[in-house]
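The following block was generated as part of the benchmark described in Methods. Ligand: heme C.
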Amino acid sequence: MNQRIYVCPYPYLLGFLILAFFAVPKGYGESPAQIKSEEEIVRKQMVQWSQDLGVTCTECHNIKNFKENSFKSFKVGQDHAKMVSIMKENGFDGIKGPLANCYMCHRGTLRPPAQTPQKK
Ligand code: HEC
Ligand code: HEC
């Protein structure tokens, strides 16, 4: 008997393709349209935050450099955004309870009252 063992190449090819897929760095395959839509999402969220707090962009940003993070309200905003996402994971998800957002507490003001009013 002199038969060669035939090895089907397709599983290897598939494996290679899967590896190649994960090896491509994130963001590499993003089309300009995708990047643009991500920017739009950030922009919409920023407009929403501003409305919810009754402020403009300059409360949290140096409008010459939106990446700058030295403003106090920027840092608090970042912390409160984390808090909102924790709330969303814990019942305020729009299904079990109302969907958490900045307006829920802020009601259009930058510093909402943090305490129950004292009875006189
Ligand atoms: C309450 C504070 C606050 C207000 C008001 C606000 N932002 Fe932001 N903005 C942030 C924070 C915090 C981040 C960073 C978000 C993060 O960490 O994911 C951010 C991120 C951004 C980014 C992305 C910057 C980057 O890293 O590429 C842009 C652009 C931006 N804001 C624009 C705006 C515009 C335009 C407005 C007004 C309509 C606005 N923001 C209002 C707090 C604010
Ligand atoms: C669970 C309630 C609650 C939620 C939700 C909330 N905040 Fe706040 N936030 C407060 C309270 C209360 C204050 C006032 C604290 C004080 O007076 O020191 C405040 C203060 C702030 C301030 C003012 C900081 C300063 O300069 O004194 C910023 C900016 C802010 N929040 C951003 C946000 C953003 C952005 C969101 C949504 C992503 C958000 N907050 C969601 C309760 C909340």
